[in-house]
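The records we work with from here on pair a chain with its fold. These numbers are not coordinates but entries in a learned vocabulary of local backbone shapes. To see the layout at work, look at the sequence and tokens printed below.
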Amino acid sequence: MRKLKLTLLTFMLFSITYTFGQETFKVEYGTVVYSKFFPYESGNMVEQLKKHLVNQPEVYGLSDNGVVLIGGMDHAKVNYNKYGGKYFGTWTALNYPLSAALAIQFKKDGYVVIVRGIKFEKKGTRPTVFDLNEYAIRDSEGTLKDNGGTERVLSYLDQYFKELFTIPVMEVTSR
């Protein structure tokens, strides 16, 4: 009975993770794309987001045309241990710096972060580039794989991006 409960609990957790990953990651034209809406209610959203991202060393080259911020990410390290991953139980590529193209679209009540071309680059004597597209896309169908390893990697990336692109709440103190 106890094994049955553990099996059902594990199945439910993986089902939730898969649904979670499918909401934020999708395949567009053979490329894995992260797209997530972040609600924002007070103040000048564009200026607050720019100020927040300037302090993030992973984000570079942001240009603003009034509707979209366009830039890139480089040397970003995903701390998958923080999100529940284990060193020998996680895709090797997450140990290396991430690079990607970045676009942020502004909406009336928030902003949408779009990350494309996610790659992990191992430098050194034998440099290697790990492409998320090759890892996460099912070749025959052009859809995201639904195995446990891919689901966990997408979940770690989602949590990392959510943490990176959420504007921290500024506490206003009266003096």
Q: What stands out?
A: The domain at 2-165 is CATH 3.30.530 (Alpha-D-Glucose-1,6-Bisphosphate; Chain A, domain 4). Residues 3-22, 171-175 have pLDDT under 50 and may be disordered. The beta strands are 25-28, 31-39, 59-64, 68-76, 98-106, 110-122, 128-131, 137-138, 143-144.
